[in-house]
Please model this.
Amino acid sequence: MPMPTPVLRQEHRQHQALTPRLQQAVRLLQLSSLDFAQEVRDALGRNPFLEPDEAQDEPSSAPEADASSTHAADPQPTEASPPSVADTSSAEDPALGADAWDPNPWSASTTPRSPRHDGDVSTIDLMAADEGLRPHLHRQINTRPLSDRDRTLVGCVIESLDDDGYLRTDLSELAALCELEPAVDMAEMNMALKLVQSLEPVGVGARSVAECLLLQLPEIEDEALRALTAEIIEGHMDKLAQHDVAALARRLVREPAEIEAACDRIRRLNPRPGWQLGSADIRYITPDVVVRKIKDQWVAALNPAIMPKVRLNQRYAELFRQHRDGRHGELAAHLQEARWTMRNVEQRFSTILSVAQAILNRQRQFLEHGPLAMKPMALREIADEVGLHESTVSRVTNNKYMATPAGVFELKFFFSRPMPTANGGACSATAIRGVIKDMLDAEDPVQPLSDAEIARRLARQGLTVARRTVTKYRQLMKIPAVEQRRRVG
Model:
């Protein structure tokens, strides 16, 4: 059988390939304003053809000054992910059972002090400065008549506390760390711990949530109420966390009203006493777009605070053009990068603004009437209106925020899939969450609404929503389950 003869064929095919400039533009577009600002600072530091734009440092007009403010607002739930506007860095510790009560962390002033050279003392100089937990405890201990050995042991306990004010390290480990002669025994360590637990804030130095709460019970003046709260904390923390009043009443042979009163008093205790000293690490969001209503029209404007203060150094660029030769390849690359950066910066903000305005045009009823007026909206609708690809709109709306009179929202918050209604129409998921929120706000605390009952009430209003979907929306709004919301009449 003869061998097949090789045949050479030419085929013409077309495929898209992103140029380096487009790749850079796409990457910059999907960055948050914080990451984008860092990217520009990095380029400014390494590229000799980029320089700070001093003109942008001049004070802006009053409306622009208002727009550049940094916002911290309650997070608004979205279908994909809620914009976490004021998210503390300390995650909830499941062991703390924080849902069983409402902690009341104290936030100290963070007003910066400016040096004065005229010898006068200003009002700001007289304001209390932020003081951390450990310095606050050390200051109290310094007023106690302790021996050097005892002061060392107490200091070891204080330095081992976490930011919540808890001692998570075993006392035997701390004793070994002290390295004192003679060796430290457990009686001394327990004495040191008791001294720390006697300090302010009340509850500091506890080794568990129960111990922390028990340390705060002397604040309860009513002796009978104090005894009942102690009994609940010492033996029934599980039911307390679930707010199971009926089960607690059966176990303790008490009236439900007594149990409810004790639980309410426990909720007013602070399970994280360390938070009272030093403000929590709060991450604020600077919105990319600011919305105002001008002559009955909602108008989006870029926030001057996020605009990069950088420009092309025209003098260096012109000198390079006049003396360019083959030996300056690296400088030529820097100049190309600088020009790309400036064009991509302009393109980024132009795209963000056009997408934001398109969103406003479709969701103006939300701004005027609230969540119930939110329309279903898909990425494709905005992409068609502004002439972009859906993937580009997705990048633009990710980690970009809009400040409105109704609050600060991530751009993707305005997108939600349509939910069918009984009359054949469609309703947005945000509007349904608004209806659920109104129901829960108006519910009877003695007979709160279950998720199944909410689903039935939505159905009577023509909104077909499954019970599990109601549960998901309730959890997104951080509303407890029905048993935890029930109060005894």
